[in-house]
Specification:
Number of strands: 7
Structural class: alpha+beta
Strand order of the largest sheet: 3-4-5-6-7
Order of helices and strands: EEEEEEEHH
Radius of gyration: 15 Å
Shape: globular
Largest sheet: 5 strands, antiparallel
Helix content: 10-25%
Strand content: over 45%
């Protein structure tokens, strides 16, 4: 779905490849929603390389950003407790989903 947002007197092409994925863990279904983090520059909107993630998990709903570093996806440093709480396998899956949908 594409949207156009008016910014001053010019139109900005705001195309966001947001997506959702489902993960099964121990018989439970988890859902994650992904959207690229964007910023406005002189020429319009551009991606930062980070992704905003909303994760529906049995222990709660978590919202955080992920970034790629040295070939691995990591949870933003602002959430060290979240990275400890979520299973390493789940964090790996989140990163794999970003890679598979954006390649």
């Amino acid at each position: 779905m594409e949207h156009e947002i008016t910014s001053g007197s010019s139109l900005v092409d705001y195309s966001s490849p947001a997506f959702k994925s489902e993960y099964e863990m121990n018989g439970m279904h988890l859902y994650a929603f992904f959207a690229p983090e964007l910023f406005q520059d002189d020429e319009g909107l551009d991606a930062t390389g980070k992704y905003l993630v909303v994760l529906l998990h049995p222990t709660g709903q978590y919202t955080f950003t992920m970034y790629s570093s040295d070939g691995f996806w990591k949870i933003d440093e602002q959430h060290p407790i979240l990275e400890q709480r979520l299973e390493r396998e789940l964090i790996q899956w989140l990163g794999d989903e970003i890679d598979s949908k954006t390649a």
